[in-house]
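Minutes, project huddle
Topic: does the predicted pose make sense with iron/sulfur cluster bound?
PN asked that the exact inputs be recorded in the minutes so nobody has to dig through chat later. Recorded below.
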Amino acid sequence: MTESAIVGQWTAAPGAEEIVTGKARYCPDIQLPGLLCGKLLYSPHARARIRKLDVRKARNMPGVFAVITHADIPGENSYLYAEPDQPLLVVDEVRFQGDAVAAVAAVDERTADAALAAIEVEYQELPGIFDPLEAMQPGADQVVQGEDNVMMSQMYRAGDVEAAIASADVVIENTYRTQWAEQAFLEMEGGVGLVDDEGGITVYSSCQAPHRDRMQIARALAMPESMVRVITPYIGGAFGAKDEAHVQIHAGLLAHAAQRPVHLIRERRESMLTHVKRHPMIIDYTTAATKEGKLLAVKARVIADAGPYTNSTHEVLNKCGEFIGGPYKVENVEVEKIGVRTNNPITGAFRGFGAPQAAFVYESQMDDLARKLGMDPLAIRLLNGVETGTKMYTGVVIREGTAMKASLNKAAEMIEWEKRDQVERRPARHLRRGFGMATILKGSGLGRGLADHAGVVLEMHRDGSVVLQSGAADMGQGIVTVMAQLAAERLGIGMSSVRVVRADTAKSPDAGASCASRQAMVSGNAVLEAADTIRDTLLTMAAGKTKIARDRLDLKAGRLTVDGEPHELTVKDLALRAGIWGYPLHAESLVHFEYPTDVPDVTYRFSQEVFQFCTQIAQVLVDCETGQVTVERLIAVHDAGKMINPGGVYGQIEGGIAQGIGYALTEELIVKEGHTQNPSLENYVIPMAFDIPELEMEVLEIPEPLGAPLGAKGIAESPIIPTAPAIRNAIYDAIDKPLYELPMTAERVLPVPDAGSIRH
Amino acid sequence: MLRLPPIKLVAPTTVQAAAKAIATSDDNARLVAGGTDLWPNMKRRHQKADTVVSLMSIPDLDSIDSANANMRIGATATLANIIRDDKLRARFPAFAVAVASISSPPLRNMGTIGGNLCVDTRCTYYNQTEEWRRSIDYCLKEDGKICWVATKSPKCWAHTASDSAPILCALDAKVRLVSASARRELPLADMYVDDGIDYLAKQPDEILTEVLVPGSSDSDHCRSAFWKLRRRGSIDFSTLSVAAAVWTDDNDVVTRASMYLGAVGSAPMPVAEIDTVLVGNKMSEDGIAEIAHVAHKIARPMDNTDFAASWRGKMTVQYVTAVLREIAGLPQLRMRPRHRLKVV
Ligand SMILES: Cc1cc2nc3c(=O)[nH]c(=O)nc-3n(C[C@H](O)[C@H](O)[C@H](O)COP(=O)(O)OP(=O)(O)OC[C@H]3O[C@@H](n4cnc5c(N)ncnc54)[C@H](O)[C@@H]3O)c2cc1C
Ligand code: SF4
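Predicted holo structure (tokens), as shared on screen:
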């Protein structure tokens, strides 16, 4: 192929204008004749038995079209991300504040509120189980009767950890704690359900996985999946919290019960109380190394608070364990992963999926080790870093690992790491400046052994315009743009000629969930495959018509080209001919993520094998008397393989770092006895523009050989991962105090040890 | 969505008509100006009203007269317009900094100075939705019988939230109050009561019509400063604020001084000792340390806002020191709060 005309260019999202001018329709904007207002009644308690649930009064109120409880669910009363243990509507016991007990649909919001108030529920409060360490004890009261509170306990071992520790020159052992973190997307969860002409159910859903939603809605309604249709309108962010279904199932149930369209949108408070948070973890971590700084062993025990229900706890802990050793060569690794039920908020997917907690730990530990050995943090990372061809402790062989060290070196160069001691370290009596780095890896794709596929349907019309149908949900991350770019590029047409139909299960093939930094790779490849089929037809036709050899022909800027020079025939001419002569310009593709077969001894289950590498360096200013931390500079070097839409790549990096700064310094859901104290963005403190420095970013483009369209790989998750440990290490550098708990609030930064005599 | 309950909204066009409207309506009537405090509070049902009397249709109630020796600001002048006024910024820089630190640009476009001075006291157990408050049971300040911050307390400890109040108190500002039957002028500091529920000495039917800041408090006569502690560089309310003004003679000897603390009591807390410690001397590190020590004792942070109360208490020392160092022209020992006085 010739040089890219579209791929690699800063490209506005199709629909960008609609979004910024307010024309784009999100779930709450959907208007339908006779639309009812749906609402859910949530539990005020963290744990209680339902002694009485009487909805008769509510049902008889004028303007109320449906009131449903667990007894009115025609099919299965459970969510099903992995285990069916979370009820859609509670039967007899509420187990966290986000459990719903009833749903109503009424003519307007006020009537729906009145109906909720008219539902009689008698709760018998029960003593809850809030401390995961206590919940793990034998004989502890069970969160779900008959089920062990320890919902998952898995040990993974590679090599001989104990022997390696015994032979080590240095051993460092610490316990780390992380917090509940909230995704804080702009658009709250929502769904609009309606009954279609054939009696089936259509649901507009603000989600990450429309096809999985369809399965869940059908299952709850006891309907064949063929009678259920899920459409994604514009979606205002998700970050993992809309991967599992939320209220779209209830919207379907209410529409079915009322036989009228129903819209069901969570309020911010409901949203924050109900959806999964990032798992708080307690991680005991031991690092063993030689006196030269070579890593010998890593031993970790990870305890995650799962809340009462399974959700994606297994998967998150699996990823946490997979990356617990960091991007380093270490052969002896032992990691115990324990998920514990409590009556706290449920936990699950959030950008990074277990990797941010792991990185906070392994990168903090790396600096502690460097200190103990008197080594430079950069040198010890370069010494241990993985490379292309490194076989990880998981058995996975890294196909392209250049970016690990390249990102470290580039970031160090950008901040002038070697000269950092020449920077004023004490700009005022109580101020200390410090520098810290963190480098990480994170896999893209679902993992070996899991169904990781995507399909698209592509059709070129007689006028040369193209419709692309894909089931990949675009929550704002830009997959629609990437797919349109790839199609346009391959077919030699402009972006404006490609229309991407937003994911609609009635039209588009399943593309799996938009998660795990996978869609640009999997759906991207599917688009290339489908586009190539159409391109082939066009070029074959062109060769026949022009009598010029097929291999001299190409499509570019709307024209046929011959040896790169524009020909008088346009793509439109060719499309018209194809229409007239009956050549179908229609292609479908289904792409599976292919895992290499030449690595027989991968020992880690569901391991990922395409890696996002990146390094971030933070420069911070710490006030020794107030404990306040200001991030003055943040350098970020990321590898995207190949940037399809640079604007999208930089956007992901900026957004991820902003979230990472919040995770590092201010964000924490405060939960007391199962009650969330700050279920609003007023006091769940995400950073504002003032709190984020001008970011200094650099993107490497080292083509990925494995399953990546044009060498491009996922970039969505990695930006949030190194930020917290980089800031932690910078604080350590500034005030000589290592921190082991997130967020690193002023209260935790204090007291600064011996503030008067810090070495700088 | 959180929505307002049904209300009757009236918008008279004169102060007299507004005063009459509030005096003659039922008990459950309230005034509103920009509504950036009242409307969210009513949506969460911790403030209630059947009738709301808006002041925003009264012409000229929003005028700012900053060129006059004694500055006069109408009650409905918006916070945005206050910081846009060049003369005001030059003459009362610390006041401008305080106003610029309030909430965010869209809220400053709506929020008024009168509303800011009368803004409700705050508490993490109170500024929550109706469902949240119901789930743990209501507290003393609205509908309940217990204080969740101090469970044995018969009194509410909600903290004063206004950022313009401490600095205007320090600058000796006065306010004019008008009701259907009377009008009076009183020192702003006297308008506040150290009680989380009844935090204003103003009667509910009194309208604050203007704020008067004496010329003797402008930058030709005194030096002033304002620092605000919060987690982020914008939007957040104060968890502690310190405002001070110091008058000196030609030899830099202090002739008068005044300081108020915000957010660490139900009213702006005066640090009266500042006058005895500083007056008669030049400002010195020792004097500053002494006042910081006194202020620490006066501050009464409770666990009812962001940050641990004990930490906010300690920060009083640091912030009082910072404010007085700024006034004394001494180099700062720490970083300034991140908000900036940005005019748009
Ligand atoms: C997200 C957010 C952040 C905020 N951050 C801050 C902050 O950092 N600092 C801060 O100080 N405030 C903050 N506020 C509160 C508020 O926006 C400001 O205090 C604003 O100045 C209030 O003015 P208003 O005109 O909107 O008041 P309104 O809401 O109209 O009124 C507030 C109260 O004053 C009474 N009132 C209004 N005008 C008069 C009058 N002329 N006479 C008598 N009574 C009157 C009303 O009856 C009501 O009880 C914030 C608010 C929000 C929503
Ligand atoms: S201080 Fe006590 S009474 Fe006052 S608002 Fe807070 S919890 Fe309620």
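Observations noted during the meeting:
- The two ends of chain B are 31 Å apart (CA to CA).
- Chain B touches chain A through 33 residues (CB under 8 Å).
No decisions taken; revisit at the next huddle.
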